[in-house]
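Please check this chain.
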Amino acid sequence: MTYGDRTFLFTADIYKHREVELTNSPWKDKLKSDMMDIPHHGSESTSSSEVFLNAVSPQIVIMSQNNFQSPNLKERLERKGAKVYSTGLHGNILLKSDGKMIEVTTEKDWEPPKRPVTK
């Protein structure tokens, strides 16, 4: 998905064989995205191949926490310069964009707006 100058890649549950197909396809250059939800809940045994992560090269990564998530994947992504957010660590994750920037707010970091006290 493209919104203004920002790109978002939603991978769902693709497996490594599909990652390989995508990185070898004519539209391989269109994989590069500012934000990506990590394939298959971050399971390194079934997805998140190095070649695919390099092709996408996201700045922001969202992981849906489940029993297969690998801490090694989070470290690999952070070494590539990505900011990694996980629903298991951060709760709900909200992305807001005006087409130029992407703002990330997590449930753990969110604070309700302060309301003036009236008498």
About this structure: The first helix runs from residue 16 to 23. Residues 22 and 28 are 6 Å apart (CA to CA). Residues 2-106 form a domain with the Rossmann fold fold (CATH 3.40.50). Helices lie at 16-23, 50-56, 71-79, 87-90.
